[in-house]
User: What shape does this take?
Amino acid sequence: MVLLNDGHALPQLGFGVWQIDNARAPEVIATAMNAGYRLIDTAANYGNEASVGVALRRMNLPRSQLYVTTKLRNEDQGYDRTMRAFDASAARLQLDVIDLYLIHWPCPQRAAYVETWRALIELQKQGRVRSIGVSNFTADHLERIIHETGVTPAVNQIELHPAFQQQMLRNIHERYGIVTQAWSPLGQGRALDDPRIRAIAERSSRTVAQVILRWHLETGSIAIPKSANAARMAENIDLFGFGLTSNDHAVIAGLDRPDGRIGPDPAAYGQMRILRRLTRRFLTT
Ligand code: NAD
Assistant: This one.
Protein backbone atom coordinates (compact mmCIF):
# COMPACT_ATOMS: atom_id res chain seq x y z
CA MET A 1 0.00 0.00 0.00
CA VAL A 2 1.10 3.58 -0.64
CA LEU A 3 0.05 6.38 1.68
CA LEU A 4 -1.39 9.45 -0.06
CA ASN A 5 -1.11 13.08 1.06
CA ASP A 6 -4.81 13.05 2.11
CA GLY A 7 -4.32 10.21 4.62
CA HIS A 8 -5.86 7.49 2.43
CA ALA A 9 -3.87 4.63 0.93
CA LEU A 10 -3.86 2.76 -2.38
CA PRO A 11 -2.37 -0.59 -3.42
CA GLN A 12 0.94 -0.06 -5.17
CA LEU A 13 -0.06 -2.39 -7.97
CA GLY A 14 -3.29 -2.06 -9.89
CA PHE A 15 -4.98 -3.42 -12.97
CA GLY A 16 -5.59 -1.19 -16.01
CA VAL A 17 -8.64 -1.89 -18.16
CA TRP A 18 -8.07 0.39 -21.15
CA GLN A 19 -8.99 -1.40 -24.41
CA ILE A 20 -10.76 -4.22 -22.58
CA ASP A 21 -14.13 -4.22 -24.26
CA ASN A 22 -17.47 -4.43 -22.52
CA ALA A 23 -18.17 -8.00 -23.58
CA ARG A 24 -14.95 -9.35 -22.04
CA ALA A 25 -14.54 -6.95 -19.12
CA PRO A 26 -16.53 -8.87 -16.46
CA GLU A 27 -14.63 -12.11 -17.13
CA VAL A 28 -11.22 -10.37 -17.39
CA ILE A 29 -11.80 -8.36 -14.21
CA ALA A 30 -12.98 -11.45 -12.32
CA THR A 31 -9.75 -13.22 -13.35
CA ALA A 32 -7.69 -10.21 -12.22
CA MET A 33 -9.46 -10.02 -8.86
CA ASN A 34 -8.96 -13.76 -8.35
CA ALA A 35 -5.25 -13.25 -9.09
CA GLY A 36 -5.19 -10.69 -6.25
CA TYR A 37 -5.57 -7.26 -7.87
CA ARG A 38 -7.64 -4.88 -5.76
CA LEU A 39 -7.09 -1.57 -7.58
CA ILE A 40 -8.93 -1.24 -10.88
CA ASP A 41 -8.08 1.65 -13.21
CA THR A 42 -10.77 2.68 -15.68
CA ALA A 43 -11.97 5.96 -17.25
CA ALA A 44 -15.19 7.35 -18.66
CA ASN A 45 -13.37 7.48 -21.98
CA TYR A 46 -12.63 3.73 -21.99
CA GLY A 47 -16.36 3.05 -22.42
CA ASN A 48 -16.29 0.11 -19.99
CA GLU A 49 -17.26 1.64 -16.63
CA ALA A 50 -20.62 -0.15 -16.73
CA SER A 51 -19.01 -3.58 -17.21
CA VAL A 52 -16.46 -2.78 -14.50
CA GLY A 53 -19.44 -2.05 -12.24
CA VAL A 54 -21.08 -5.37 -13.15
CA ALA A 55 -17.81 -7.26 -12.59
CA LEU A 56 -17.19 -5.67 -9.18
CA ARG A 57 -20.74 -6.34 -8.04
CA ARG A 58 -20.45 -10.00 -9.08
CA MET A 59 -17.20 -10.39 -7.12
CA ASN A 60 -19.06 -9.33 -3.99
CA LEU A 61 -15.87 -8.35 -2.12
CA PRO A 62 -16.10 -6.15 0.97
CA ARG A 63 -16.06 -2.54 -0.27
CA SER A 64 -13.06 -1.78 1.95
CA GLN A 65 -10.97 -4.27 -0.06
CA LEU A 66 -11.66 -2.63 -3.36
CA TYR A 67 -10.10 0.49 -4.89
CA VAL A 68 -11.63 1.95 -8.02
CA THR A 69 -10.13 4.74 -10.08
CA THR A 70 -11.99 6.49 -12.86
CA LYS A 71 -11.25 9.59 -14.89
CA LEU A 72 -13.13 12.58 -16.23
CA ARG A 73 -13.41 12.81 -20.04
CA ASN A 74 -11.78 15.86 -21.63
CA GLU A 75 -15.14 16.93 -23.10
CA ASP A 76 -16.63 17.07 -19.59
CA GLN A 77 -14.20 19.62 -18.17
CA GLY A 78 -15.72 22.67 -16.46
CA TYR A 79 -17.28 22.89 -12.98
CA ASP A 80 -20.92 21.94 -13.69
CA ARG A 81 -20.14 19.43 -16.40
CA THR A 82 -17.66 17.70 -14.09
CA MET A 83 -20.28 17.39 -11.35
CA ARG A 84 -22.72 15.80 -13.82
CA ALA A 85 -20.07 13.57 -15.39
CA PHE A 86 -19.04 12.31 -11.98
CA ASP A 87 -22.65 11.32 -11.17
CA ALA A 88 -22.85 9.43 -14.48
CA SER A 89 -19.55 7.58 -13.85
CA ALA A 90 -20.53 6.64 -10.30
CA ALA A 91 -23.91 5.36 -11.55
CA ARG A 92 -22.27 3.25 -14.29
CA LEU A 93 -19.82 1.83 -11.75
CA GLN A 94 -22.70 1.23 -9.27
CA LEU A 95 -20.65 2.91 -6.54
CA ASP A 96 -21.64 5.64 -4.09
CA VAL A 97 -18.02 6.56 -3.43
CA ILE A 98 -15.14 6.46 -5.93
CA ASP A 99 -11.74 5.80 -4.38
CA LEU A 100 -9.75 7.95 -6.81
CA TYR A 101 -11.12 10.41 -9.36
CA LEU A 102 -8.72 11.94 -11.87
CA ILE A 103 -8.83 14.69 -14.49
CA HIS A 104 -7.77 12.55 -17.47
CA TRP A 105 -5.81 15.20 -19.43
CA PRO A 106 -5.15 18.87 -18.66
CA CYS A 107 -6.14 20.05 -22.19
CA PRO A 108 -4.66 23.51 -21.49
CA GLN A 109 -6.26 24.97 -24.64
CA ARG A 110 -9.70 24.43 -23.07
CA ALA A 111 -8.59 26.68 -20.17
CA ALA A 112 -10.89 24.71 -17.85
CA TYR A 113 -8.64 22.50 -15.76
CA VAL A 114 -8.56 24.86 -12.76
CA GLU A 115 -12.38 25.06 -12.45
CA THR A 116 -12.51 21.32 -13.11
CA TRP A 117 -10.10 20.81 -10.24
CA ARG A 118 -12.39 22.97 -8.03
CA ALA A 119 -15.23 20.55 -8.86
CA LEU A 120 -13.10 17.59 -7.75
CA ILE A 121 -12.31 19.42 -4.50
CA GLU A 122 -16.06 19.88 -3.94
CA LEU A 123 -16.77 16.19 -4.70
CA GLN A 124 -14.17 15.20 -2.14
CA LYS A 125 -15.73 17.62 0.42
CA GLN A 126 -19.12 15.99 -0.20
CA GLY A 127 -17.58 12.58 0.52
CA ARG A 128 -18.34 11.23 -2.94
CA VAL A 129 -14.66 10.72 -3.76
CA ARG A 130 -12.07 9.50 -1.32
CA SER A 131 -9.00 10.85 -3.11
CA ILE A 132 -8.66 13.31 -5.98
CA GLY A 133 -5.89 13.61 -8.48
CA VAL A 134 -4.91 14.34 -12.04
CA SER A 135 -3.42 12.55 -14.99
CA ASN A 136 -0.95 13.73 -17.62
CA PHE A 137 -0.37 17.04 -15.80
CA THR A 138 3.00 18.70 -16.39
CA ALA A 139 4.82 20.66 -13.67
CA ASP A 140 3.19 23.91 -14.89
CA HIS A 141 -0.34 22.48 -14.73
CA LEU A 142 0.30 21.01 -11.28
CA GLU A 143 1.70 24.25 -9.87
CA ARG A 144 -1.19 26.27 -11.30
CA ILE A 145 -3.93 24.19 -9.61
CA ILE A 146 -1.99 24.01 -6.36
CA HIS A 147 -1.38 27.75 -6.24
CA GLU A 148 -4.89 28.75 -7.35
CA THR A 149 -6.83 26.37 -5.08
CA GLY A 150 -4.45 25.52 -2.26
CA VAL A 151 -5.24 21.81 -2.76
CA THR A 152 -2.49 19.45 -3.93
CA PRO A 153 -3.52 16.40 -5.98
CA ALA A 154 -2.93 13.07 -4.23
CA VAL A 155 -1.81 11.41 -7.46
CA ASN A 156 -0.57 12.32 -10.93
CA GLN A 157 -0.99 9.40 -13.32
CA ILE A 158 1.58 9.79 -16.09
CA GLU A 159 3.19 7.82 -18.89
CA LEU A 160 6.15 6.11 -17.25
CA HIS A 161 8.27 3.15 -18.33
CA PRO A 162 12.00 2.44 -18.77
CA ALA A 163 12.25 4.33 -22.08
CA PHE A 164 10.37 7.35 -20.67
CA GLN A 165 11.19 7.94 -17.01
CA GLN A 166 10.08 11.56 -16.45
CA GLN A 167 12.60 12.10 -13.64
CA MET A 168 12.11 15.89 -13.53
CA LEU A 169 8.35 15.57 -13.14
CA ARG A 170 8.80 12.84 -10.51
CA ASN A 171 11.06 15.23 -8.58
CA ILE A 172 8.24 17.82 -8.62
CA HIS A 173 5.83 15.14 -7.36
CA GLU A 174 8.20 14.39 -4.52
CA ARG A 175 8.50 18.08 -3.64
CA TYR A 176 4.70 18.40 -3.35
CA GLY A 177 4.01 14.95 -1.86
CA ILE A 178 2.16 13.73 -4.96
CA VAL A 179 2.22 9.98 -5.61
CA THR A 180 3.27 8.99 -9.13
CA GLN A 181 1.06 6.46 -10.89
CA ALA A 182 2.68 4.88 -13.96
CA TRP A 183 0.49 4.33 -17.01
CA SER A 184 1.75 1.98 -19.71
CA PRO A 185 4.25 0.73 -17.10
CA LEU A 186 5.50 -1.92 -19.55
CA GLY A 187 5.73 0.59 -22.37
CA GLN A 188 2.69 -1.17 -23.91
CA GLY A 189 4.84 -4.27 -24.21
CA ARG A 190 7.76 -2.56 -26.02
CA ALA A 191 9.95 -2.50 -22.89
CA LEU A 192 9.80 -6.31 -22.75
CA ASP A 193 12.25 -6.74 -25.62
CA ASP A 194 15.14 -4.89 -24.01
CA PRO A 195 18.22 -7.16 -23.76
CA ARG A 196 19.64 -5.27 -20.75
CA ILE A 197 16.47 -5.85 -18.73
CA ARG A 198 16.39 -9.44 -19.97
CA ALA A 199 19.89 -9.94 -18.51
CA ILE A 200 18.65 -8.68 -15.10
CA ALA A 201 15.61 -10.97 -15.37
CA GLU A 202 17.74 -14.02 -16.17
CA ARG A 203 20.06 -13.34 -13.26
CA SER A 204 17.08 -12.97 -10.88
CA SER A 205 15.18 -15.97 -12.36
CA ARG A 206 12.25 -13.63 -13.05
CA THR A 207 10.54 -12.44 -16.22
CA VAL A 208 11.29 -9.12 -17.91
CA ALA A 209 7.79 -7.84 -16.99
CA GLN A 210 8.42 -8.69 -13.33
CA VAL A 211 11.74 -6.81 -13.31
CA ILE A 212 10.14 -3.71 -14.83
CA LEU A 213 7.17 -3.77 -12.45
CA ARG A 214 9.48 -4.34 -9.49
CA TRP A 215 11.50 -1.31 -10.67
CA HIS A 216 8.30 0.79 -10.56
CA LEU A 217 7.55 -0.37 -7.02
CA GLU A 218 11.10 0.24 -5.80
CA THR A 219 11.12 3.74 -7.30
CA GLY A 220 7.94 4.49 -5.33
CA SER A 221 5.40 4.56 -8.16
CA ILE A 222 2.06 2.80 -8.38
CA ALA A 223 1.99 0.63 -11.54
CA ILE A 224 -1.21 -0.33 -13.36
CA PRO A 225 -0.24 -2.92 -16.00
CA LYS A 226 -2.88 -4.33 -18.31
CA SER A 227 -3.23 -7.86 -19.62
CA ALA A 228 -6.26 -9.89 -20.62
CA ASN A 229 -4.27 -13.11 -20.18
CA ALA A 230 -4.65 -14.98 -16.86
CA ALA A 231 -1.04 -16.25 -16.75
CA ARG A 232 0.37 -12.76 -17.39
CA MET A 233 -1.95 -11.20 -14.82
CA ALA A 234 -0.60 -13.65 -12.23
CA GLU A 235 2.99 -13.04 -13.37
CA ASN A 236 2.56 -9.25 -13.11
CA ILE A 237 1.41 -9.39 -9.49
CA ASP A 238 4.02 -11.91 -8.33
CA LEU A 239 6.61 -9.24 -7.53
CA PHE A 240 7.65 -10.09 -4.04
CA GLY A 241 10.50 -12.23 -2.72
CA PHE A 242 13.10 -10.57 -4.91
CA GLY A 243 14.70 -7.17 -5.28
CA LEU A 244 16.82 -5.15 -7.66
CA THR A 245 20.38 -4.15 -6.86
CA SER A 246 21.64 -0.56 -7.12
CA ASN A 247 23.45 -1.70 -10.25
CA ASP A 248 20.15 -2.95 -11.76
CA HIS A 249 18.64 0.47 -11.01
CA ALA A 250 21.58 2.17 -12.72
CA VAL A 251 21.16 -0.05 -15.80
CA ILE A 252 17.42 0.73 -16.03
CA ALA A 253 18.04 4.46 -15.42
CA GLY A 254 20.31 4.35 -18.49
CA LEU A 255 17.41 3.20 -20.72
CA ASP A 256 15.61 6.57 -20.53
CA ARG A 257 15.43 8.22 -23.95
CA PRO A 258 14.42 11.73 -25.05
CA ASP A 259 12.22 10.17 -27.75
CA GLY A 260 10.85 7.44 -25.46
CA ARG A 261 7.32 8.84 -25.17
CA ILE A 262 4.62 6.58 -26.67
CA GLY A 263 1.44 8.55 -25.97
CA PRO A 264 0.51 12.13 -26.80
CA ASP A 265 2.25 15.21 -25.38
CA PRO A 266 -0.05 16.57 -22.62
CA ALA A 267 0.87 20.18 -23.48
CA ALA A 268 -0.82 19.79 -26.88
CA TYR A 269 -3.26 16.89 -26.48
CA GLY A 270 -6.89 17.76 -27.13
CA GLN A 271 -5.97 20.75 -29.28
CA MET A 272 -6.39 19.02 -32.62
CA ARG A 273 -9.98 18.08 -31.93
CA ILE A 274 -10.90 21.64 -30.92
CA LEU A 275 -9.14 23.06 -33.99
CA ARG A 276 -10.97 20.57 -36.21
CA ARG A 277 -14.33 21.52 -34.66
CA LEU A 278 -13.64 25.27 -35.05
CA THR A 279 -12.51 24.79 -38.66
CA ARG A 280 -15.68 22.80 -39.41
CA ARG A 281 -17.85 25.49 -37.82
CA PHE A 282 -16.02 28.21 -39.77
CA LEU A 283 -16.44 26.35 -43.06
CA THR A 284 -20.14 25.69 -42.52
CA THR A 285 -21.09 29.24 -41.51
P1 NAD B 1 1.08 -1.68 -20.46
O1 NAD B 1 2.42 -1.08 -20.34
O2 NAD B 1 0.36 -2.15 -19.25
O3 NAD B 1 1.23 -2.86 -21.51
C1 NAD B 1 0.16 -3.64 -21.91
C2 NAD B 1 0.65 -4.58 -23.02
O4 NAD B 1 1.66 -5.44 -22.48
C3 NAD B 1 -0.47 -5.47 -23.51
O5 NAD B 1 -0.28 -5.66 -24.90
C4 NAD B 1 -0.25 -6.78 -22.76
O6 NAD B 1 -0.71 -7.87 -23.49
C5 NAD B 1 1.27 -6.81 -22.62
N1 NAD B 1 1.66 -7.51 -21.37
C6 NAD B 1 1.19 -7.26 -20.13
N2 NAD B 1 1.81 -8.09 -19.24
C7 NAD B 1 2.67 -8.86 -19.95
C8 NAD B 1 3.58 -9.88 -19.60
N3 NAD B 1 3.71 -10.29 -18.35
N4 NAD B 1 4.29 -10.47 -20.59
C9 NAD B 1 4.17 -10.07 -21.88
N5 NAD B 1 3.32 -9.09 -22.27
C10 NAD B 1 2.58 -8.49 -21.32
O7 NAD B 1 0.19 -0.61 -21.30
P2 NAD B 1 -1.26 0.02 -21.23
O8 NAD B 1 -2.32 -0.97 -21.37
O9 NAD B 1 -1.20 1.13 -22.23
O10 NAD B 1 -1.32 0.72 -19.80
C11 NAD B 1 -1.86 0.12 -18.65
C12 NAD B 1 -3.01 0.91 -18.11
O11 NAD B 1 -2.65 2.28 -17.91
C13 NAD B 1 -4.22 1.00 -19.04
O12 NAD B 1 -4.99 -0.18 -19.06
C14 NAD B 1 -4.95 2.17 -18.44
O13 NAD B 1 -5.71 1.76 -17.30
C15 NAD B 1 -3.81 3.09 -18.04
N6 NAD B 1 -3.56 4.16 -19.02
C16 NAD B 1 -3.82 5.44 -18.66
C17 NAD B 1 -3.60 6.48 -19.55
C18 NAD B 1 -3.87 7.89 -19.13
O14 NAD B 1 -3.88 8.79 -19.98
N7 NAD B 1 -4.10 8.15 -17.86
C19 NAD B 1 -3.11 6.23 -20.85
C20 NAD B 1 -2.84 4.90 -21.18
C21 NAD B 1 -3.05 3.88 -20.26
User: Anything to note?
Assistant: The chain has one domain: 2-283. The mean pLDDT is 95. Strands lie at 2-3, 9-10, 15-16, 39-41, 67-72, 98-103, 129-135, 155-159, 179-183, 222-223. The chain is about 45% helix and 15% strand.
